[in-house]
Amino acid sequence: MDEHLRPLRDYRATHFAFAASDDGKVATITLDRPERKNPLTFDSYAELRDLFRALAYASDVKAVVLTGAGGNFSSGGDVHEIIGPLTRMGMPQLLAFTRMTGDVVKAMRHCPQPIVAAVDGVCAGAGAMLALACDLRIGTPAAKTAFLFVRVGLAGADMGACALLPRTIGQGRAAELLLTGRTMSADEGAAWGFFNRIVEPGAVLGDAQALARSLADGPTFAHGVTKTLLHQAWALDLDAEIEAEAQAQAICMSTGDFRRAYEAFAAKAKPAFRGD
């Protein structure tokens, strides 16, 4: 094993729950303060940032599920533990905080593992941004998503919202949600492409984990390449993107998984991908 790679199966979180599947390939991160609808604190932001950064060097985790406990995803930044203290900070401290929250999203976008959000109930503010930063989202009819920064006197420009939300649901719809702070219903979220699908509350976590498992059992090196190119594509013109994809696909063609897929096809069997 590469000395820089570390298994995360036995990772112990302090500010949220972390659980790995028996083989360690699927990790489930649960925001776990259900009595407060799973708000975020200074410490949970920092720990999430560090965990997603560590996932880039994980030798075992191939896909991630992000969810909330107690029938809600997350109510966003804790009013008393974050918003109150922010009103008493100076500009250097405020900028350090906003950069840290943005670093969580950057770490999520840069880790190679696909991240699947299982969203039920309240999904608001920074919680909505965590869901948006995931690669795929499964919601429930009770999911209520709101980018409500304007309702506390802030801009809708937070944690990459002005870049990620228009790309996901379109410019006009994103502008409406970010300027008004109104709640996007589950039906709207599904129709607009925010949610990949809607399932019943009792099924949302299981469905998200099943989707993550299917990705973890696939060609995970290639999945990481797809995620990287999706992230980079918005900064490239079409010619540059086509060249980047040509180089990326040539690299994937040199992998064992590409050879295994061909051999399985020739043998009329299902390929057993190993991520190399």
What would your notes on this structure say?
This protein is of the alpha/beta class. It has 2 domains: 17-216, Alpha-Beta Complex (2-enoyl-CoA Hydratase, Chain A, domain 1), CATH 3.90.226.10; 220-266, Orthogonal Bundle (Lyase 2-enoyl-coa Hydratase, Chain  A, domain 2). Helix content is 48%, strand content 13%. The protein contains 11 helices and 9 strands. It has helices spanning 42-55, 79-86, 91-110, 126-133, 161-169, 171-180, 186-192, 201-216, 220-232, 238-253, 256-266; strands at 17-20, 26-31, 63-68, 115-119, 122-124, 136-139, 144-146, 183-184, 197-198. Strands 1-2-3-4-6-9 form a 6-stranded mixed sheet, sandwiched between helices. Helix 1 runs parallel beside helix 3 (91-110). The longest helix is centred in the middle third of the chain and has 20 residues, at 91-110. It starts with 16 loop residues before the first strand and ends in a 10-residue tail after the last helix. The model has no long low-confidence stretch (mean pLDDT 95).
